Amino acid sequence: MLCHEFEDRLTDYLDGTLEVHVNREFAEHAMRCPVCHDLLSEVKNTLLKCSASEAPVPDATLEARILLKTMPETAISCADFEAHLTDYLDGFLLAPLYHRWERHAALCPSCSELPGDVVRAIGACYTYKQDELPMPAGLERRILQSTIGNVLPQEVRAPFGARLIEWLRGALDPIVSPQLASVATMLLVSVFVLTNTVSTDGSVSGIYHASLRLAERTAGNASKSSALPDGMRKLADSVNDLIDGGSEKGNETNKNQNSSNQNGAAQPSQSKPKGGSEQKDR
User: Fold this and answer.
1) Which of the two residues, 215 and 99, has the higher pLDDT score?
2) How far apart are CA 80 and CA 78, in angstroms?
3) What is the pTM of this model?
4) For tag attachment on the chain, is the N or C end more exposed, with fewer CB atoms within 10 Å?
5) Coil, strand or helix at 175
6) How crowded is the C-beta side of 181, counted as CA atoms within 13 Å?
7) 93 CB neighbour count, 10 Å cutoff
8) Is the dihedral of CA 199, 204, 208, 211 positive or negative?
């Protein structure tokens, strides 16, 4: 085996991939040739040192530079970097955009310090927010002068009519508003129930006549009782007189209506013969 063949097959020999007879020839040549023997020893020592040493720390910008050279279309501009800065600080960026954003921050010298500056500014704002600043001298006076044109504050009141209406509204609303609706509802329900149950003809006057009959019945039962006091007996007699007077007035009203109806019916009947006689005369 020649020296150049030995150098070509050195890597395969160290990896143990040579055939048996080729591996034997390689070992014999290393034993005979001092130059190749030294080369083999040097390569073995270098491999031992490399395996014993720690792996070098990769550069932070290595991947970004490789991708920028190989796939420049994946890079983002400085404007896009600033537009997504808030989302990056809040943790809302998606994974593909997040890696592109970090690669741009590692390579761009003008944008690499921007996230740190923003974070420090936010921290300073929170710190200053907790501290109470002293009020400048004359601030209140300048505000009054700029807003109302007068340093001394003046009382601004509404017109008298508006104040009176507002006072009446405040006084009457608690009284009228809650009670008016409930009273009106109770009256409507009472009238509806009484006209459908007590009244004979379904009207309000029927309720009045039914109440009079009930009072008459009650007064009659009370007058029949022997143990009734004198005061109650007088009250019963007055109720009977009131009922009798109401019935007499009702009868008179009915008679007057009947007589007026009869008179109205008699007048047309009398006018017909006159017309007939006039026709006969003609």
Assistant:
1) 99
2) 5
3) 0.31
4) C
5) helix
6) 4
7) 18
8) positive
Contacts of 12 (CB under 8 A, 6+ apart): 18
The DSSP output letter for 16 is: T
Q: Which of 129, 126, 148, 69 lies closest to 103, judged by CA?
A: 69
Tokens of 165: 């209406």
Helix and strand counts by DSSP (H, E) for the chain? 13, 0
> What mean pLDDT comes out for the span 156-161?
78
CA distances from 125 to 121, 130, 134, 136, 208 (A): 6, 9, 17, 20, 83
**Are the C-beta atoms of 81 and 105 separated by less than 8 Å?**
yes
Whole-angstrom distance, CA of residue 63 vs CA of residue 59? 8
Per DSSP, the three-state class of 219 is helix
CA distance 217 to 124: 95
Identify the pLDDT of residue 125.
82
Q: Nearest Cα to 215, choosing from 241, 197, 196, 191?
A: 241
- Tell me how long the chain is: 282
pLDDT of residue 225: 56
pLDDT in tens, 181-198: 777 788 888 877 777 776
On the CB side of 96, how many CA atoms lie within 13 Å of its CA? 3
The first and second tokens of residue 158, run together, are 């509404």
